[in-house]
């Protein structure tokens, strides 16, 4: 970590991420919207109704072994349980170990899992920077996780150690600018999108108006959350050094991830009551796709699938 002592950093991270309700307290984020999920699916799998996770378990894994697989590890699971409950209930994995650095997040996830009557998911407090779990795991999941890891080399070595010889490292993560240091062109394009939207779409649930977007200084972001995007731009280059990378598929996010932050619910009719929301969202998606096609925006998010080099 980069600020304070390791324990102080862990306390800050726990304060930021310990309560799963806090993340959407100001309003929805881009992936809360089904249309955005379909856009991302389209970029990764080519089918708006087929997620990267479903494609992995239904098309890739069965070529080598029966599904469900025996064991999976979820890194930086957080407190929401969506990932691990989803793959468990789909019947894709028999046993899941999920770790997170935040004790409050782990407690919330464990409580929700117990309340749901699920016995095949086990939670533990664990730091990705010094991962301590017992393998082997058929799949290791890094979903919205690796961009919070400062010691990527240590993590990759640990994943290599606990991943079964014929296992997979499944990554779906933010791989954009470290510490969210967006480019000037990116900030300009985001603000152009925000400025063409009617006022009613720009106010979040805490009455904050999102008309103008700006880049937060790296030191300010690190002081608030020492783990946030700490080495995000190095995730893929270091992955390719350590593993055999079978696939990398970017899915954008350079604009809408930021433009829709805390206001995405305004584009959902059930949330806002505004029937024009989906149409404005469609226009935003079309603009984002076109700018991406022109090469004017980068893929800040990516799906990657990696394996042991010897596999």
What does this structure look like?
Helix content is 38%, strand content 17%. It is α/β, with parallel strands linked by helices and 311 residues long. The protein has a single domain (6-307), classed as 3-Layer(aba) Sandwich (Rossmann fold), CATH 3.40.50. Helix 6 packs across helix 9.
What structural class do the secondary elements suggest? alpha/beta
> In DSSP terms, counting alpha (H) and pi (I) runs of 4 or more, how many helices?
12
| CATH architecture descriptor name | 3-Layer(aba) Sandwich
Number of strands: 7
The residue-averaged pLDDT reads: 94
Give, in spatial order, the strands making up the sheet with the most strands.
3-2-1-4-5-7-6
Note the topology.
Blueprint: H1 6-17, H2 34-45, H3 52-60, E1 69-74, H4 82-89, E2 93-100, H5 103-115, E3 121-125, E4 137-143, H6 152-162, E5 163-174, H7 184-195, H8 218-224, H9 235-242, E6 244-250, H10 256-259, H11 269-272, H12 277-293, E7 301-307
Parallel strand pairs: 1-2, 1-4, 2-3, 4-5
Antiparallel strand pairs: 5-7, 6-7
Helix pairs in contact: 6-9
Domain Methyltransferase type: 76-171
Protein name: Class I SAM-dependent methyltransferase
Keywords: Methyltransferase, Transferase
């Amino acid at each position: 970590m980069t600020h304070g002592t390791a324990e102080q950093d862990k306390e800050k991270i726990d304060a930021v991420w310990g309560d799963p309700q806090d993340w959407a307290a100001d309003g929805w984020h881009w992936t809360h919207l089904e249309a955005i999920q379909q856009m991302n699916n389209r970029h990764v799998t080519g089918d708006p109704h087929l997620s990267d996770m479903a494609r992995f378990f239904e098309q890739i894994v069965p070529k080598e072994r029966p599904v469900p697989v025996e064991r999976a590890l979820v890194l930086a699971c957080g407190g929401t349980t969506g990932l691990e409950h989803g793959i468990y209930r789909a019947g894709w994995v028999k046993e899941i170990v999920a770790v997170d650095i935040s004790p409050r997040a782990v407690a919330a996830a464990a409580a929700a899992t117990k309340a749901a009557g699920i016995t095949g998911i086990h939670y533990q407090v664990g730091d990705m920077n010094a991962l301590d779990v017992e393998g082997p795991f058929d799949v290791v999941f890094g979903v919205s996780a690796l961009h919070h890891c400062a010691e990527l080399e240590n993590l990759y070595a640990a994943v290599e150690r606990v991943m079964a010889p014929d296992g997979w490292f499944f990554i779906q993560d933010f791989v954009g600018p470290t510490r969210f240091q967006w480019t000037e062109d990116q900030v300009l394009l985001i603000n152009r999108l925000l400025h063409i939207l009617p006022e009613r779409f720009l106010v979040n649930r805490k009455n904050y108006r999102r008309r103008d977007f700006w880049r937060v200084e790296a030191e300010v972001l690190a002081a608030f959350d020492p783990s946030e995007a700490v080495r995000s731009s190095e995730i893929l280059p270091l992955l390719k050094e350590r593993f055999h990378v079978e696939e990398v598929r970017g899915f954008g996010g350079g604009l809408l991830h930021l433009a829709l932050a805390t206001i995405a619910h305004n584009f959902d009719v059930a949330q806002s009551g505004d029937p024009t929301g989906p149409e404005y969202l469609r226009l935003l998606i079309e603009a984002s796709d076109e700018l991406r096609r022109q090469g004017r925006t980068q893929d800040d998010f990516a799906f990657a699938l990696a394996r042991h080099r010897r596999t």
